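A.,

Following up on our hallway conversation. Structure tokens first:
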């Protein structure tokens, strides 16, 4: 199974879970890598060496002997370099999807902005729904402040545009969507909207 690693507000998350103890060193090594140390649940040590900027990055994994050797004398092992580029359609984190949702609903030019009561909104009530979330699709559940009920929102990224589908009520997902709208990712402008309840 493929895992998705990213930093969310300075915390390392793997598949939206924060199960790893880690330390990001405050310096780069002599090769220009930023060092990320990870202590796994079994207390084995792993490290990532990261280098790059923009959407193009190089990552190098250190485990077992290569981990010990690197931290003993700075030797970077051969054959473990991973080059990757961010998929323009993929989501980096839950916060990226929530940021877009807030941008859409704060844009007064959008019809959907008229249906939000911000006094009933708390950002920390969002959580990722693992079933249905992968790659370009992020499914989130929003719990009501009272703790009773909630709603689901599915975000499907198509690069510069995102399709957002709302499911009102805890039992509506995934069979009964209520509304779907397509938005510009950059400014949150709704460019197409469809009522799915009719």
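Then the amino acids I'd put at each of the 198 positions:
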């Amino acid at each position: 199974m493929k895992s998705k690693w990213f930093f969310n507000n300075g915390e390392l998350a793997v598949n939206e879970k924060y199960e790893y103890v880690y330390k990001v060193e405050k310096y780069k090594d002599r090769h220009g890598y930023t060092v990320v140390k990870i202590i796994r649940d079994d207390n084995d040590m792993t490290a990532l060496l990261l280098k790059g900027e923009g959407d193009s990055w190089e990552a190098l994994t250190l485990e077992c002997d290569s981990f010990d050797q690197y931290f003993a004398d700075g030797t970077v092992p051969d054959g473990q370099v991973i080059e990757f580029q961010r998929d323009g359609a993929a989501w980096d984190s839950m916060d990226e999807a929530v940021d877009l949702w807030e941008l859409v609903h704060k844009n007064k030019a959008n019809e959907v902005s008229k249906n939000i009561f911000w006094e009933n909104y708390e950002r920390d009530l969002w959580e990722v729904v693992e079933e249905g979330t992968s790659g370009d699709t992020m499914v989130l559940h929003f719990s009501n402040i009272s703790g009773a009920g909630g709603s689901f929102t599915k975000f499907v990224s198509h690069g510069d545009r995102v399709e957002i589908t709302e499911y009102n009520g805890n039992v509506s997902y995934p069979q009964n969507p209520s509304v779907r709208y397509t938005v510009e990712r950059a400014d949150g402008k709704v460019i197409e909207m469809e009522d799915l309840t009719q």
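Residues 62 and 68 are 8 Å apart (CA to CA). Curious whether your intuition agrees with the design.

B.
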